[in-house]
Design goal:
The chain has 214 residues and is mostly helical. The chain has a domain of 119 residues. It has 9 helices and no strands. The longest helix is centred in the last third of the chain and has 35 residues.
Length: 214
């Protein structure tokens, strides 16, 4: 009886493995389609069924779209698909602004524009109203002096002169004060709609801009 080490032949071991022939057969079946696909792609030059869009063609389409529907800035290099900002409704009440301009504004012009956020116009209205109020006070004082002159029988100045001078001065002051008051009431809704933006052609800013300066 042989007691030496058991030597197993490698060839006999491979032939005795029952799973090895089946795995080799499956590998050969998978390799055939892959090999065929590689040969087909190489023969076709790996051409995609979709043609690539050239940069010149994309640029021409973009220019045509820009010419048909120009953007707001009229800049062909601007992004045409940028979302336009939506205009938000005014957050302040026109009714409240008008009430402020009517009653408290009778004593303090510009409250309607101050509430709307148009601080520049409100400052100009306060300046015009304050200057008109000052002229009215001066005119009233001159008229009162005319009354004293008539009562005390002063020789100079004459009561008529004082009455005329006081009336003209007070009248100009009253017109300026009423101008600021009515302008505040009329222009306040526009200031609400534009969210406090000053009017582009404000007569106050152009003709009476000195009254609103600090």
């Amino acid at each position: 009886m042989h007691s030496g080490p058991l030597i197993v032949d490698e060839r006999s071991a491979r032939s005795s493995d029952p799973y090895r022939p089946a795995a080799a057969a499956r590998a050969s079946r998978l390799a055939a389609p892959l090999l065929f696909s590689g040969v087909a792609l190489a023969a076709a030059g790996c051409v995609s069924p979709f043609e690539a869009i050239s940069p010149d063609l994309a640029r021409e389409a973009r220019l045509a779209l820009w010419q048909e529907r120009p953007p707001r800035s009229l800049d062909p290099n601007e992004d045409l698909f940028e979302t336009a900002p939506t205009e938000e409704p005014p957050t302040k009440s026109v009714v409240v602004a008008e009430l402020l301009a009517i009653f408290p504004g009778l004593f303090w012009p510009g409250l309607g524009h101050q509430y709307a956020g148009d601080h520049r116009t409100a400052k100009e209205l306060r300046g015009v109203g304050g200057f008109g109020l000052g002229l009215g006070a001066i005119g009233g004082g001159v008229v009162f002096l005319g009354h004293l002159s008539e009562k005390e029988d002063w020789d100079y100045p004459s009561p008529t002169t004082l009455y005329i001078a006081g009336g003209i001065t007070g009248g100009i002051g009253a017109l300026m004060f009423l101008y600021g008051w009515f302008y505040d009431m009329i222009d306040t809704p526009r200031a609400i709609r534009t969210r406090g933006q000053p009017p582009p052609d404000s007569p106050l800013h152009e003709d009476l801009k000195g009254f609103g300066d600090d």
